[in-house]
Every structure is written in structure tokens, then in C-alpha cells.
Amino acid sequence: MNRLDPDILFIELRDGVTLTEPIIGRKYTLTHSDITAELFLTIGLQYAFDRISDMRDEVLAQWVMDEYLYLYVYVYVDAWLIWNEEDGRINNTDK
After folding, report:
1. Which of 2, 17, 33, 58 is the most exposed place for a label (fewest CB within 10 A)?
2. Residue ranges of domains in the chain
3. pLDDT digit string (tens) for 61-80?
4. Under 8 Å CB-to-CB from 69, ≥6 apart: which residues?
5. 87 burial level (CB within 10 Å; 0-12, 13-18, 19+)
6. Is the dihedral of CA 90, 48, 95, 1 positive or negative?
7. What is the pTM of this model?
């Protein structure tokens, strides 16, 4: 794919977010179907772990404010995700 085809991108806004707010604390979950090649972007206050399955690769991102505004992006290809609720970090491990 050279360019993103908007016809195969489906966006879901979860409770607590709009198209523009909030920025800080917003989390993005991008999944991809290996069967249809469709992309599914879920935007919410939590990652959409319910959208993650063995048939997809994931990109997770979140805005973080320190001294500057950062977009942290986590890319997982063929890996298990481990969510650490205590520190908010995502770790991975081999299947």
C-alpha cells in the first residue's frame, strides 16, 4: 500500500472522547484484518484490548505530556501484549 485508502479505514470513538478532545490521555488502537486488509482505529480513554486478536497486528499510541507533548507509539507484529496497569506501560512477549 503506497497510500492510505480511507475506504478501508473504520474509526470508532469510545465514551469520553470526541474527534478533538481530550488530547492528553487519549489512546489509539489500530488493528488490521489479515483477511480483508481493512484497518480499524479505536480512539478512547483506554486501549481497545477487546479488538485485539491473533488474526491482527496492532499499533497502539497515546499522547503524553511531560515538558513537551509526545505521541508514544507501540507497534506489535505477531506478539502477545502485556498491559501493566500499575505504571501504564505495555510490554510484549513471544507467543
Report:
1. 2
2. 6-93
3. 999 888 999 999 988 766 55
4. 23, 63
5. exposed
6. negative
7. 0.75
